[in-house]
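Hi R.,

Here's the chain you asked about this morning:
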Amino acid sequence: MEIIAIANQKGGVGKTTTAVNLTASLAARKKRVLLIDLDPQGNATTGTGLDKNSLEQTMADVLLDGVPLMNAIHQSPAGFDVIGANRELAGMDITLMGQANSHELMKNAMAALIDDQATSKKKPYDFVIMDCAPSLNLLTINALVATDGVIIPMQCEYYALEGLADLSQTIDRLTELNPKLHIRGVVRTLFDARNTLANDVSDELEAHFGDIMYKTHIPRNIRLAEAPAHGMPVLAFEKRSKGAKAYQKLAGEVIKQSLQNNV
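And here is the predicted structure, written out as C-alpha cells:
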C-alpha cells in the first residue's frame, strides 16, 4: 500500500482536482484506492458524489475522537472508497494545541489501517491518496508525516514557483519526523501550451526537478471544471475529454513509478 499526499501551500493550482481524478483513474486501472479528504472545505468529498454534511463518520472523528479509519470509509458513487471531510475539521490546530504527538495522529491511524487490512478478507489498498488543505497547518503536517511521498500539482506561473520553493523547504524540515518523506513528482496543471510564460516556467521546472517531473501535462479543460458541480470525477463525467485522458496518462506514470520502486 502506497500512501501519497497531494499537497501545495498555494491554492488554486488544481490540487483537489488532481486528488479526485488521479484516484478515479487509478481505480479505472483496477487498483484498489482510498481517497482521504484532509481539507475542511471538503471539496474532494463533494467531487466524488458524497454529501459531506450527511456522513456519519469523517476525518474529524478519526483525528479528534480516535475512530479507526476503517470505520469512516464510505463507498463513493464514483466507484472507490472515500473518507470524507467537512467544516468539523476546521480549527483542528486550536483543538489539538499542546497535545503530545498531535502531528502523528494520521501516521498512527494509517498504521492501524494497515493492521486492519492484514486481517481483512478484502484486497488491500494499492494506493491511499490524501488531499491536503492549501496551507501548512496541522492537517497538512499530519499528512506529510504519514505519507510515503508527495505529488505536487503546479501551475506554470512565477508566483507558483515561490510556493513550490516554500513547500520543498517544509518537506526537507519534516524528514526528521518522517525519513521516508520525499517529493514523488511534480505535475503541471492548468497548462496552456500556447502561453509563453507557461512554457518558460515549465522549462525552469524541468531544469530544477529533472526526473521527478511527470511527463503528463494537465490542460486547462472545461470538462475538468464542470465535473465537480455534478459530483463526479471527469472520467465519469466525460471520459473522452482532454482532462480525462490526461489524468489517465498520469495514473499510468504513477503506477510505473510504483513498479520501478518495488523492483
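One quick note: The mean pLDDT is 91.

Cheers,
M.
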